[in-house]
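Give me C-alpha cells for this 272-residue protein.
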Amino acid sequence: MKTAIHKIILAAITSITLLNIASAQIVEEVIVEKKVTVKKDSVTSEKNISINLGVDDSEKKIKYPRAFGGITFSRIDWGFSRLLDDGKFTLSEDNSFLSYKKASNFGFDVAQFGLRFNDNFKSYISAGFEWNYLRLKENILLKENSQYLDYDIIDRAEVDYRKNILTSTYLRLPITFEWRSDRNSHGKRMKVAFGAMTGILLKGTQRLKSDANGKQKFKDNYNLSSFQYGPFIRIGYNDFGIFGKYYINDMFENSPNQKGLHNLTFGLSLGF
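Here you go.
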C-alpha cells in the first residue's frame, strides 16, 4: 500500500515538473517573439517632426495614387531676407531709406491637401502664414494712407528710434511638388521639394521703440504688394533641410521709385 502511494506521489511530482518546464519554454518563446516584434517595429517606424489632423500621408497604406489632407503644422521656414534692387544687393538712392540692419523671414503651413502618386513622389497645395521683418537703419516714420510709399525723416535730437521694424504679414498658398529617395540603412530619406510660393497680404506694420515715445505700433499696407509670387525650393534629409524663395513681384506696388525691388529669402526648414 505504501509502495503504491509512493509511486502515485512520484508520478505527480514528475508530471508537475514536466508541466513547469513546458510552461517556462512557452513563456520564453512568447517573450522572445514579442522582443523580435518590437525590434522589427522599431526599425520600420518613422518619426516625423510635424503635427497632422485628417487623412495623413502615412506609409501604412500602399495603394497609389492616394489623397491626403487636413490640418497640419509643418514646413517651418526660418531664415534671412535680402532686398534686390534691379538685381543688385546695393539699394539705389531712391530706396536708400529702406537700408536695413537685418532682414528675416518666418513662416509655416497649417493646412494641406494633395495626392501621392507613388512611394517617391507627391504633389499638394497648402496654406499657412509668412512674415517678413525689415529692421531699418534710418530714423524714419513711414506715412500712412499714402498714394505711394513715402516717409518723414525724424530728427534724432527729438526722437531717436532704437528699434524701427517694417513687418509684412501674408497668407501663403504654395503649390508643391515633392520627391523623396528610397530609405537608406537607417530608415531615412533625402527630400527635394519645389514649386510656386504665392501669398495674399494680410497687413503691414511699423514697430518703433524710443526713449521719448516708448513703444509704438502703426498698421497700414504701406503700398506693400497685395499679392506676392515666385519659385521656391527645399532640400533636406529626413525632417531637416534648407530653403530658398525668390519673389518675382515688386515688393511695393503703385510706387514708381520702388519698381524693380524684390525679396530673396533663404534659411533652415523643419518638418517637411
